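cache lookup: miss for this entity combination. No prior model stored, computing from scratch. Input as submitted by user K.M.:
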Amino acid sequence: MRSLIICVTFFMSIGLSAQTNAFEYLQPLPDSPVIPDTNLQSNAKIALGKQLFFDVRLSGNGTVSCNSCHNLAASADAEGSALNMKARGITRNTPSLWNIGHMSTYYWDARAPSLEAQAADHLLDPRIMNMSNELKLVKRITAISDYRAAFKAAFKDQKVSIQNVAKAIATFERTLNTPDSRFDLYIKGDKSQLSKAAKRGLTLFNDKGCLSCHFGVNFAGPAPGPALKMGDGFYEMFPTYRGTYYEEKYHFTDDLGRYRVTLDPEHKVMWRVSSLRNIVDTAPYFHNGAVNDIREAIKIMSKVQFNFDITDAEVEDILAFLETLTGKYPEITLPRLPEEKGLSVIDQH
Amino acid sequence: MRSLIICVTFFMSIGLSAQTNAFEYLQPLPDSPVIPDTNLQSNAKIALGKQLFFDVRLSGNGTVSCNSCHNLAASADAEGSALNMKARGITRNTPSLWNIGHMSTYYWDARAPSLEAQAADHLLDPRIMNMSNELKLVKRITAISDYRAAFKAAFKDQKVSIQNVAKAIATFERTLNTPDSRFDLYIKGDKSQLSKAAKRGLTLFNDKGCLSCHFGVNFAGPAPGPALKMGDGFYEMFPTYRGTYYEEKYHFTDDLGRYRVTLDPEHKVMWRVSSLRNIVDTAPYFHNGAVNDIREAIKIMSKVQFNFDITDAEVEDILAFLETLTGKYPEITLPRLPEEKGLSVIDQH
C-alpha cells in the first residue's frame, strides 16, 4: 500500500477540501517536467533518444518502433490501437505521450515507477517490442558504429545497456510537452482565453467533482514533487458506481486494473488518473479505448463516478472547457537513423 | 509483352553498346522526377499527402500508416520487413521510397504502372493497409473536417476518393529525393569526389557489366521519358545463371517474380531493376531481403548474373563506388494530423 495514494486520502493528508479550494489546484504547465537526478537532460542524450524512439531495430524482428504506436504526428497515439493489439494480449488504450513526463507513474495500472522503467519494460515485453533479452539488444545497437559514438557522447564512458537505451528514450520523451493551451494562458492571467461556455464548464468541472481527481499541472493529480514521490501513483476507482448500463455496454470492468499488478482486492478497478491535456485530440477514451466520442465519455464519467445524470447543456459547457486544454505541439523533425554501411543488423533467418 | 522491355533489347533498340558507351549512361539525379500531367505537384497536395502518409487511420483497423513500413527516419525502410510480413503473405523486401519518383513502374514485379496506382492498391490490399473498400476509406476521411478542407484545397471541387488519396500521397512521395551524392557532384565535374578506389570501382562496375542494367538517373534503367513511357518497366532476369550455391542458400527462386503477375513463362524470375542510390543504407538486399551484407550481395550479383567469381579486392572497389551513391536526405518535419475534436473515426467494435 505504500505507493498507493487514493484521491480522498490525498486531499485529507494535505488538509484541503477539493470543493472549497479547488481553484488552487489549477496550474499551468511548467516549462519542464521534474527531471530525475539519475537521468539529467542533455542535448546528446535527447538526440540519441529521438533516434532510438523512431528505430524499428529496437524490436525483436525489426518492424516496430516506439513511434509505431505512439505516433508523434498524431495528437493521440495509434488510434484504435487496442484493436489489433488484442491478438497480442494488449487490451488497453495506448496512452498519449504528450506531457507524459509530468506523470508520477507509468501504465494504466502504474506498474512502472518511471519513464525509464516503462521503456525498459516495453523493450522486453513479448507483446510489444519483443526483444528477447538485453544481450540481443546491446549486440544489435553496438553493431552500428554511429550508435556506439552516440552512446559514448550521451553516457560518457558507460557502455550500451538496456538501462541507457531506456534513459535516452525517457530523456527525449520529457521534451514532448504542449505548453500554452488557452487554459494555460487563462490561468496565467489572460482571462479572455476562455469563452463564457468554457468558464461555465470550468465551474461545472469543479462543482461536479471532476477536479477532485483531475487537478495539477497535468489534470492527473499531483505531479512528482513535495506531495508525491516519483513512482508513487495517484489512483482512483473507475467505475465508482458499479452495475450501470455504461459498464455493461463498454465492458469497463472486464479489466480489474491495478489489481492485476498487486492482487490486492482493494485495488480492483483502481486506475492511475489520466491526464486531460489535449483530451479532445486523443479519442478513443478510457482504459480499453471503447468509447469513440468525448460527449459520451463525459456522460459516462458523470454517471459512473458520481451517479449523476448530466444534461446535454452541461456536457457542452464541460467540453468547451476541455477544448481549452489543447496546447501547442512542438515541431518535430524526423531524426536520421544511423545505418551500418551495407549491413543489416537484423537476422533475417 | 508491350510493357516489357528487357535490358538487352533496350540497348539494341537505341543502337548503343553498354560496353563502349557506358559512361553516357551515368547521369546525376535531376532536380525533380518526371511529373505526370494527370497529377501535377502543388504545395497543398504535398502537405495533404504528407499527412496521409503518416496517418494510421488509412489502414482498416487504424494501426498502420505508410510510414510504418516505409520509415522516413531510416534510409532503408523497415529493416527486415520481410520478416513478420511473412505471416501476412508478404515475402518481399520493402523497397526504399527515396528517389522512388524516378522509377517507371512500381513493385518488384512492376504490377503497378504509377505511384498513384501503387498507393491505391496498397490501401485496399488486405495484407497491407486492409481498407476493405473505397467507401470505408472515404467515410473515414470525410468524418475529419480538417481533411475535408485539405482535400478541397488540394483538389478544388473534386470529392474525397481513393484516387485523390493516392494522388496526394504520390505527390508527397515525388518530393522524397536525395540529390548531391558524391557521385552526382563527380558527374557534374568535381572529379575530387571519387577516391581512387571508388574510381576503380566505377570502372569495374562498367567493365563487369553492372552498368548495362543499373544505369540512368536512378541506376535502375531508363527513367520515364522519350525512351520509356511511364508504366513501361525495365526488367532483368535474376538469377541469370541458375542452380548456384547462392540461389539455393538464399532461396532466390522460390519467388518467380513478374511471372506471378503475367503467368507468361518468359517472365519467370524476371524483376524490375532496382535502384542503387543510397544502396549502402538499404540493407538487407534482394527481393526477399535474404542477404544482410552488401559485400555478399556484390559477390552474388557477380556469380549469378555473370557467372564470374569476383575477387575480394574488386568487391572493395565496387563498394567504394557504391558508397558514393548516398545522397543528401532532406530534413522532414512531422506533419500534424488533423483530429476531429473529441471523436475517433475508427470503429472500436
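stored under new cache key. The longest strand of chain B covers residues 233-237.
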